[in-house]
Specification:
The protein is of the alpha/beta class and 496 residues long. It folds into two domains: 265 residues, Aldehyde Dehydrogenase, Chain A, domain 1 (3-Layer(aba) Sandwich); 185 residues, Aldehyde Dehydrogenase, Chain A, domain 2. It contains 15 helices and 21 strands. The strands form six sheets. Strands 14-15-16-13-12-18-19 form a seven-stranded mixed beta sheet, with helices on both faces. A five-stranded parallel beta sheet has the order 9-8-7-10-11, with helices on both faces. A hairpin with a 2-residue loop joins strand 3 and strand 4. The N and C termini lie far apart (80 Å). The model has no long low-confidence stretch (mean pLDDT 97). Bound molecules: NADP nicotinamide-adenine-dinucleotide phosphate and magnesium ion (MG). NADP nicotinamide-adenine-dinucleotide phosphate binds next to helix 7 and helix 8. The site of NADP nicotinamide-adenine-dinucleotide phosphate has 29 residues, from helix 7 and helix 8.
């Protein structure tokens, strides 16, 4: 069995604890993919020391040159796309088509970072005084702790690590125990691309040990985290004590609105893709569908028929449309929510149970599930289930649709299907979310646009686009006075 190592200060090193965790395939739990170090806080400390030492040198390299290393990483990732996508499906369960998308997002992000190496814009602006020049520029933050979840094992670390490195930071990366092999491959690629020793460090292990050690470490300057709102709040609390720069990308309870004038076939394709891709385990997954009363019965029937016939199975089979959920505890959590929904009085019209049969018994396969008659304030309408479970709501007009959509503590993604420009514009303006799609599903972010949410989905940062560089840089403001005398801002008045 393949035994993997941590990557610290440019070397692959064995677990100090001598303990390992297993990485298994959620479509077939008998299949062990490899074992990975259950690292300790000592290993985090070594990684931070290495990252701190490497920082000065890495930050001194011109950004376009750092970018060229990332371009090389993009090229290697491109060459290995199929192989890595297959690894991704094996350890995460998502179907191959989606795994290829996950890997492609990493490639796109690396190329985007490469380009940003020759921009990394700041601005110049006039001074209030004569013979004085004002400008800003971006400096790296320092050592970044990067903590990611399992649901996008290539895309999410890429969204953070590539811009962090481009901006001149060094990194201590803790990947999820549920998808460590993609993290290993990504760091291998960075090594091969020529990232110098100590600049990227990889420490495998649990959130409670390795994650906590990162949060508390005094020499870590910033934390970039994607995961649940619960862990996000914990990070803000612990890392806030040492005044780290913290970026949190958290949960969602996203909805798609279908108006009476919508192209229903199109809305159906979007809703099915949004709800059941990655078995509903996306932060942007469509977990609520809000339909105008005039088309409610017709649309629900269409959705039910498609959902009922979705082909569920091992994602390596190209004909499969939905894979397993990530592990047994996630399966149990999803099923608990189904029980809660039933107790709350919602009507379960499809699914609500584990798939059974020879091809399913060794994995964590859950049936595509639909609830109707869901009370807007019930738990299944409010809490993130992170599984293939959809709640339907019937509304009388656009105002009620938006009100139902906004009735959540989260605010990540949203969507509306309508042919009416006035309704679309109203939705764009009134929906409380970081992202709104018009005539598209709640999923499908592109790497060069800002990504993130409002309310409990985060703490005000946006990954993606150039906004990600606000996370990974500090702004230096520069005043250059060439008047040859002491000029006092706010006190001296300008006279010709
Ligand atoms: P999670 O339980 O919050 O875990 C995320 C990461 O944090 C894992 O690496 C985990 O380690 C680590 N962690 C756990 N406890 C920690 C602690 N006390 N200190 C430091 N690190 C800790 O989330 P998940 O279940 O893996 O992922 C699903 C969640 O991610 C959902 O809520 C989803 O909405 C959210 N998500 C958000 C976005 C976004 O961009 N907004 C994107 C994707 C997913 P382990 O390896 O031990 O689990
Ligand atoms: Mg977890």
């Amino acid at each position: 069995m393949m035994e993997y190592k941590n990557y610290i200060n440019g070397k692959w090193v064995s677990s100090k604890s001598g303990k390992y965790f297993e990485n298994r395939n959620p479509a077939n739990w008998d299949e062990i993919i490899g074992i990975f170090p259950l690292s300790t806080s000592d290993e985090v400390d070594e990684a931070v020391k290495a990252a701190k030492k490497a920082f000065k040198y890495w930050a001194s390299i011109p950004a376009p040159k750092r970018g060229e290393i990332l371009r090389k990483a993009a090229e290697i990732l491109m060459k290995r796309k199929e192989e890595i996508s297959r690894i991704l499906t094996r350890e995460n369960g998502k179907i191959l088509k989606e795994a290829r998308g996950d890997t492609q997002e990493g490639i796109d992000t690396a190329f985007y970072a490469f380009g940003e190496g020759r921009r990394l814009f700041s601005y110049t602006t006039p001074s209030e005084l004569p013979n004085k020049f004002c400008l800003t520029f971006r400096r790296p933050v320092g050592v970044f702790g990067i903590i990611t979840p399992w649901n996008f094992p290539i895309a999410l670390p890429s969204w953070k690590i590539f811009p962090a490195l481009l901006a001149g930071n060094t990194v201590v990366f803790k990947p999820p125990v549920d998808a460590p092999l993609c993290a290993y491959e990504l760091v291998k690629i960075l090594e091969e691309a020529g990232v110098p020793e100590g600049v990227i460090n990889l420490v495998f292990g649990s959130g409670s040990v390795v994650g906590e050690a990162i949060l508390a470490h005094p020499d870590i300057d910033g934390i970039a985290f994607t995961g649940s709102s619960e862990v996000g709040a914990r990070i803000a609390e612990v890392a806030g004590k040492t005044l780290k720069k913290i970026s949190l990308e958290l949960g969602g309870k996203n909805a798609q609105i279908v108006m009476d004038d919508a192209n229903l076939e199109l809305a159906l394709e979007g809703a099915i893709w949004g709800a059941y891709a990655t078995a509903g385990q996306r932060c942007t997954a469509t977990s609520r569908i809000i339909v105008h009363e005039k088309v409610y019965d017709e649309f629900l029937e269409m959705f039910y028929e498609r959902a009922k016939n979705l082909k569920v199975g091992n994602g390596l089979d190209e004909s499969v449309e939905m894979g397993p959920v990530i592990n047994e505890s996630q399966l149990k959590k999803i099923h608990e929510y189904v029980e809660i929904g039933k107790k709350e009085g919602a009507k379960l019209i499809l699914g609500g149970e584990r798939l059974k049969g020879e091809e399913y018994d060794k994995g964590f396969f859950y049936k595509p599930t639909i609830f109707t008659d869901v009370s807007p304030n019930s738990r299944i309408a409010q809490e993130e289930i992170f599984g293939p479970v959809v709640c339907f709501f019937k509304v009388k007009d656009i105002d009620e649709a938006i009100e139902v959509l906004n009735n959540t503590k989260y605010g990540l993604s949203s969507s509306i299907y309508t042919q009416d420009i006035n309704k679309a514009m109203k939705a764009i303006e009134k929906i409380e979310a970081g992202i709104t799609y018009i005539n598209g599903p709640t999923i499908g972010a592109e790497c060069h646009l800002p990504f993130g949410g409002v309310k409990n989905t985060g703490n005000g940062h946006r990954e993606g686009g150039w906004t990600v560089y606000d996370i990974f840089t500090e702004i230096k403001t520069v005043y250059i006075d060439y008047s040859g005398k002491l000029q006092k801002a706010q006190i001296d008045t300008w006279e010709s």
